Amino acid sequence: MKPSFTALVSTLLIVGCFAADPTPPKTKTTSSMDSEKPVVVKSESEWKKKLTEEQYRVTREAGTERPFGLAYEEFDKQGEGTYYCVCCGAELFTSTQKFHSGCGWPSFYDQSSAKNIRELVDNSGGMHRIETVCKRCDAHLGHVFEGEGYKTPTDRRFCINGVALKFVPKGGKAPELEAIASEAVQKKKADVAKEGGVEVRK
């Protein structure tokens, strides 16, 4: 039996999304389009205490969750509200910018007016892409693509990992922001780490 035209198109769309957003290798290198440095800095052990294993893998190691997974199913059902960084609580998106792209990952056509997303040039895996990270804590969120033909106000697609987001329904209480790391605190951490023979990532 030959597959229907609709099934064929759906298959090609899913394959295209996989090609567009594979899990970046750990050797991934990025060059910034924005020199702004994160203001929330924690050690790997501190992040691991705060996050689940999957949240840590995605946000701190630039991983990618599987498409059409549980996080996407939850995203698909969510109504009006705001999306915050799961690591530091910064506002990232609202349901106003949300749209269904069919790729299996949460999609937004723009970030929220809070402008807490930084875009980085990502040349990993022999591809040229734009990575999106949280400005406050440098959490990996996903990638942003342009000119794909979606009928949205920007024709941009922020392809975001659901586990990197914390959804708060309209009228709900925003998550508490992680404290900004002062230079004195960071120097103390660096000194303690140095004494223990551990190099602190800048």
Question: How would you characterize this protein structure?
Answer:
With 202 residues, the protein is α+β, with helices and mostly antiparallel strands. The chain has a single domain (28-195), classed as Peptide methionine sulfoxide reductase (Metal Binding Protein, Guanine Nucleotide Exchange Factor, Chain A), CATH 2.170.150. 25% of the residues lie in helices and 22% in strands. It contains 5 helices and 10 strands, in the order H-E-H-H-H-E-E-E-E-E-E-E-E-E-H. It has helices at 5-20, 44-50, 53-59, 70-77, 183-195, and strands at residues 30-32, 81-85, 91-94, 98-99, 107-108, 117-122, 129-134, 140-146, 156-160, 165-169. The longest helix is centred in the first third of the chain and has 16 residues, at 5-20. The protein starts with a helix and ends in a 7-residue tail after the last helix.
Attribute tags:
202 residues, alpha+beta, Metal Binding Protein, Guanine Nucleotide Exchange Factor, Chain A, 7-stranded antiparallel beta sheet, 3-stranded antiparallel beta sheet, 5 helices, 25% helix, globular, disordered N terminus
